[in-house]
Amino acid sequence: MLNLPNILTLLRVVMIPVFVALFYYPTPRSNMIAAFVFVLAALTDLLDGYLARKLKQTTKFGAFLDPVADKIMVCTALVLIVEYYSVHGRDFITDFSFNLLISIPAIVIISREILVSALREWMAEIGKRAVVAVSKIGKWKTTIQMIAIAGLIWRHNNIMIYLATVLLIVATILTIWSMIVYLKAGISNMMEPVDPAKSAIVSNK
């Protein structure tokens, strides 16, 4: 079970509290280091998937833990960012409404993660998990999202904050787009009659 790809995934989980501690650590460069740790964790996501396929070491444990680690990492980062800019946003940006351009995308992205995760779990229950497999749009969304989050964590200057916010908005648009794609892929299956026996099993989980 603990092959190299799974170790990298577990490492990503371990890096989350490290990233949180650095985010709040009161030193001038802690935000830059926190951004670096976040990017490093994001890169392990690319690497573990590549190695799992290359080395033919895909496991059920890895298939479960990898998306969970990603969602915990992203949702944690977004919550920290929203909290920080709601309190300290005016240190960088005088327009308070600018914070809405961060908080609203964060809500959309987190909501999408919950919805798609629930959809994938349900599709897996009926043996059609492949119908909602990760799409190219989802991969682009993830890449842009990670860059945006890293920039908002680093917050080197106002230009970086503005550019990162623009990327976060782009990621949000792709988030909605990919969510629609996933829902369209699964909607026909949702409308199919459900076997009462299977329905009881799913509802009791």
TrEMBL record:
<feature type="transmembrane region" description="Helical">
    <location>
        <begin position="160"/>
        <end position="183"/>
    </location>
</feature>
<dbReference type="InterPro" id="IPR004570">
    <property type="entry name" value="Phosphatidylglycerol_P_synth"/>
</dbReference>
<feature type="transmembrane region" description="Helical">
    <location>
        <begin position="7"/>
        <end position="26"/>
    </location>
</feature>
<feature type="transmembrane region" description="Helical">
    <location>
        <begin position="32"/>
        <end position="51"/>
    </location>
</feature>
<keyword id="KW-0808">Transferase</keyword>
<feature type="transmembrane region" description="Helical">
    <location>
        <begin position="96"/>
        <end position="116"/>
    </location>
</feature>
<keyword id="KW-0812">Transmembrane</keyword>
<feature type="transmembrane region" description="Helical">
    <location>
        <begin position="63"/>
        <end position="84"/>
    </location>
</feature>
<dbReference type="InterPro" id="IPR043130">
    <property type="entry name" value="CDP-OH_PTrfase_TM_dom"/>
</dbReference>
<dbReference type="InterPro" id="IPR048254">
    <property type="entry name" value="CDP_ALCOHOL_P_TRANSF_CS"/>
</dbReference>
<keyword id="KW-0594">Phospholipid biosynthesis</keyword>
<comment type="pathway">
    <text>Phospholipid metabolism; phosphatidylglycerol biosynthesis; phosphatidylglycerol from CDP-diacylglycerol: step 1/2.</text>
</comment>
<keyword id="KW-0444">Lipid biosynthesis</keyword>
<keyword id="KW-1208">Phospholipid metabolism</keyword>
<keyword id="KW-0443">Lipid metabolism</keyword>
<dbReference type="Pfam" id="PF01066">
    <property type="entry name" value="CDP-OH_P_transf"/>
</dbReference>
<dbReference type="GO" id="GO:0008444">
    <property type="term" value="F:CDP-diacylglycerol-glycerol-3-phosphate 3-phosphatidyltransferase activity"/>
</dbReference>
<comment type="similarity">
    <text>Belongs to the CDP-alcohol phosphatidyltransferase class-I family.</text>
</comment>
<dbReference type="GO" id="GO:0046474">
    <property type="term" value="P:glycerophospholipid biosynthetic process"/>
</dbReference>
<keyword id="KW-1133">Transmembrane helix</keyword>
<dbReference type="InterPro" id="IPR000462">
    <property type="entry name" value="CDP-OH_P_trans"/>
</dbReference>
<keyword id="KW-0472">Membrane</keyword>
<protein>
    <recommendedName>
        <fullName>CDP-diacylglycerol--glycerol-3-phosphate 3-phosphatidyltransferase</fullName>
        <ecNumber>2.7.8.5</ecNumber>
    </recommendedName>
</protein>
<dbReference type="GO" id="GO:0005886">
    <property type="term" value="C:plasma membrane"/>
</dbReference>
<dbReference type="InterPro" id="IPR050324">
    <property type="entry name" value="CDP-alcohol_PTase-I"/>
</dbReference>
